[in-house]
Each structure stands twice: as C-alpha cells, then as structure tokens.
C-alpha cells in the first residue's frame, strides 16, 4: 500500500502539471475525478493508453460526496469486481476503513455484503497517491468547458467523432482519440437548501455546463434526477449513551484480493450507533414543507436512500432508523445516515434535536439537495461508448446511477474500453452471467433509468456464481488475458489461487468413503444410517455442520496444504451444485435459440414468474423464437429460463 505525505503530494502535482503543459495529444482524456473518473483514468493507463485526467479541483479527487462508507449488499460485490480488475476502490477501502462488517451474514455467502465505514481523508489521500504514481497518467486541474467533435461524416449521417476537449481557462484545445465523461452530479447541477436554489455540482463546487454540447451538438437525450445529503453533526455535542452501540466485526475482512489484512487493526476500529426518529421529527417535516423547495419538485430521487422528508411522508407514524457513523479516526464529526434533508438550516437544527441522542446537537454543515442532468443510458453500447459518437464514453452518475460503487464499476470498464479503442484494439463487454458489472451495464442499456439506479443482489439472476469470494477467478484472468488492465503481479496471484483451489477440489473429490465411515468420524452429520453410499469429501463439505478444517484434521496428509483457502472451499462446495445447474441453464438457452414461441401466448396471464415489465414487452413485440426474446431490451435471462420451461412443459 502506497502513501505519500501531503507536502510530497503537492510537489508531485506541481511537477505533473508542469510536464503536462508540453503535451496536447492523449489517447484518452477523462473528465472528472470522482469515483468513476479515478477508476477510468487508472484503468485506461493500466491498459496502455497515454491518459489525461482533468478535474475541477485536484484536492477533491476521490472525495466521498455523501456517506463515508463503501460496499454493502450488491455494492460490496461491485467493489470486489473492481478490485479483481486491478481497480483502486477495494485497496483504498482497506486503507481507509475504520469499521468493517459483512452485511447479510445470516444469508448465504453469495449475497453477503462486504461493507466498511471510511475515514474520508485517508480514502481521498490513498486515491490521490495511487493516481499520481500511475505510469502514463497525467492529472491536471481545470474545468472542461467544451467537448470537441468532428462534423458528422456525410456517409454516416448522425455519426459524430470526438476529437478532444477545451478547458474554461481559454488554453489550447487538447486532443484525444477517446474521451470519458464522468461528471457525476455536476451536469447542469443545482443545489437546494430551504427556499434557496443555486448553481452547483456539490457544496463548494461549480456545476458543469457540458449538457449543452451533449444535447445540442450530439443530439443526446438527457433527463434530470436528484439526490440529497444529511447535515454533518459535531460529535462532542451528541449524547451517544442514548443510542445503541453497533460494533464492527471483530475480524475485519479486507475488500482487496491482494490484502491479507486491513490497515486499521481490529481493536482500533470505531463503532457506529443506532437511534430512531420521534413523532417530533415528523411534525417538523410537515410544518416546514412549504419552506422546502427541493422536495416539492417532481424530479425522481434515490428510492433506496430516501430523504427524511420522503420517509416520513411515505411511512407516517413510524420510528425511522438513524445511524450515527464516524467520519474518520480523528474527525470531530458524525454522519447521520437516514437524515438526508433539504429544509432551511435553522429548521434542520430543530429537526435533529427531536432525536434523543441529538437533543443538544450542533450542526457543522447543513444538509442540502442537488438536481442534475443525466444522459439516458440506452444511448450507449456495452463498452459504455455513446452509440452515435465514436470515441465518447460515459461512466458513473452521468448515466443515471447512484453510489460510489456503481460509479467505480462503470469507470473501470469505460477506462478499459476507451483505451482499447484509442489503441485500435476491439472493445470488450462483460456479460450478466460473469459479473455484477455486466448486470449493471446491461440493465442501464436495456432498461434505461427512470430513477437513480443502485445495485442489489436480486438484480443478478446468476448470483450464486457471482459471489464476492470468487470475483478474482471470474475477472482477474480475463482482465489480464483479454482486457490488459491487470498487472502481472495480481495475475500471478489469481493463477496461483485458481490452481490451488483446483488441486484442493480434486483432493476433496478423491477423498471418497462410505457414508457409514463418515458418520463414525463425524457423528453430528445427518446421514441416513440404513443404507451406505459412497460420499466424496467435496460432497461431505456441503453438509452444514462440516467445515474444511474438520476434514483436514481427518485427512491432514492430503488436505492440510489447502488450509489457507478453507472458507473459499466450503463456499465453493456448497454452491457447486447450484452453479452447475445455472451453467446447464445457460447452455440450454443457447441450444434452444431457435425454439418457436407460440404466437397465441397470453403473456399477461402466463402462470410463470415474469415481471410486469417483461410481460408488457413480450406482449408488445411477440418474439417468434426464444433467441429473438433474448435480444429484447428489458428481457433478463431469468425471464428466458422461465419462458423456456413453460413452453417445453406445455408442448
Ligand atoms: P462524482 O463523484 O460526483 O465526481 C464528479 C467529478 O467530476 C468531480 O470531481 C467534479 O469536480 C468533476 N467534474 C464535473 N464536471 C467537470 C468538468 N466540466 N470539468 C472537469 N471536472 C468536472 N450516492 C448514494 O449512493 N446515496 C446518496 O444518498 C447520495 N447522496 C448524494 C448527495 C449529494 C449532495 C451528492 C453530491 C452526491 C450524493 N450521492 C449519493 C452520489 C455519490 O456521490 C455519487 O454516486 C458518486 O460520487 C458518483 O461518482 P461519479 O464519479 O459519477 O461522480
């Protein structure tokens, strides 16, 4: 893990800035140094492209605009996948994490959600240090005012080509073969607090005016979304004894496949606290409704991260959870998750003081809302390139998503593809069957966005195969062998892991014994004693009460070399039958491509599990074959499997 002191950082920035001045042509330019932009720039440079990252303020590179946390259910899977592709956020999370926990632990490991509370400053410093030491990457402070595009080719009307950017300081244009826009909440951004509306992308930052080029020059469809953030509270003014303490996991599990430990020692982690809203909170929201112009707008906000105003209006009379989360190891502030609000600051103070631990709380920075433009993502191809503009890629909140992890995931993939395009290599896609990143991109492209999109494990049909524990085997090998964005160090480690796991699984397979013998060895397992069958160690490991450690102590000579992977082997054994079934289903769909779909099917009443949206699409289009149905926007592989089973069953 690298870390450079703030002074050295400034010196590096100055020298980078100076050396940049000589260069006016890049393979890839990335606009924006948020979560999408930093991953995109680093990935493009790793893939071999001379890359320039231009962002409004260098010191805000890697800033966590809202919550000081990373990962969670679905989002943690994305962090693991970005890490598997050699991205930054997993290692940054391990460096800056101050409270690690695995969410959803009571459920199967496929849907566990690795999550960490972060120290904001450490996170930013790590990302900045990484970027500034990445070969082939220049970082420059500036605001991109204009996207340069060539006139459409008369042979291909409507098809533009991006040629570079122009900064607002009036300097010369900078040319590039590919440009990635990752402008987050800044595109024509407006900030809201009480009855005040002002231009801005985030508090203290100016908005970006690039919407004009996107709409008027490129003819792209642009929509509007909103989000908000809670006030930050002075820690010393809070009576934490009135809240429930929530300790971290005693053994923090790192995000990165390269890290055996987190930077923060287990005993140095900080707790979070849980408290609840009272009827007084609801009263303040209702009384101040007329003073709160953000919530009176029709623009859609994040459904799964709603403001306190939306929560009390949608679910009146309830006590809503509020998490009090540390903002850093030495920070004086607490982040009240669940209290995003946009009323005037004096009313925000009145509201928080209605919550018992916050009776005498002081606000450091008031909450506010932001509304911004996004580009309808159905206009992109699977490489995240704008279909009608050669060389222009979009990633992050600009595509209608919400969250750092969703942004990082798109960023890494846009970075790989922008670099490949610039280096005259074919662009690549990730499928829904191999990654959550593939699910995310496919959902955006096929369904578009009507509200801010966030990841959930339920969005992935093949989630038993797309587990956090195996993201390295799914993506690191492909990232090195096909995409070229993974270092040889990480690749060698992934190959070692793959080979060792394969050897361990073969050893488990070969360890066959009669069920009677196994039962004698492990009386606690529930095996029928009436009839003896032969069971392999791998099959035995599928039993709930059997751990790899137990098998290794029974057969140390063949299993003890694999103790390092005991948990992965247990998970692999449990999920293997489901994954095999899923692989068969995928093959079956491919084989049944030409199966005719009866034209008189009433999709609205079909007695199979289909979403209302899928029923409407199938009813409208009436695909003639299963293959035609798979290619419809909005039709997922799960829908196809259900359709296939139904038609075959009724034949
Ligand atoms: P950002 O992190 O926003 O980064 C954009 C970057 O682009 C910035 O560095 C900016 O300076 C730069 N930039 C923009 N225009 C230009 C230009 N023309 N030239 C040069 N640089 C430019 N997420 C949640 O999941 N839940 C929430 O509740 C939530 N609430 C939020 C509340 C607020 C007020 C804000 C601002 C964000 C919130 N987010 C929330 C969103 C979260 O911050 C984003 O999802 C995430 O940061 C998106 O990453 P990004 O890289 O797309 O954009």
UniProtKB/TrEMBL annotation:
Q: Name one GO cellular component term.
A: cytosol
Q: Does the keyword RNA-binding feature in the UniProt annotation? A: no
Similarity section: Belongs to the MnmG family.
An example of a Gene Ontology BP annotation on this entry? tRNA methylation
Task: Kindly list the cofactors needed.
Answer: FAD
Keywords on record: FAD, Flavoprotein, tRNA processing
Which InterPro entries does this entry report, sorted A to Z?
A: FAD/NAD-bd_sf, GIDA_C_N, MnmG, MnmG-rel, MnmG_C, MnmG_C_subdom, MnmG_C_subdom_sf, MnmG_N
Gene3D superfamilies, per database record: FAD/NAD(P)-binding domain, GidA associated domain, C-terminal subdomain
Q: Which residues form the tRNA uridine 5-carboxymethylaminomethyl modification enzyme C-terminal subdomain domain?
A: 573-645
Name of the protein described by the UniProt record: Mitochondrial tRNA translation optimization 1
Q: Which organism is it from?
A: Labrus bergylta
| Lineage: superkingdom | Eukaryota
A single GO molecular function, which one?
A: flavin adenine dinucleotide binding
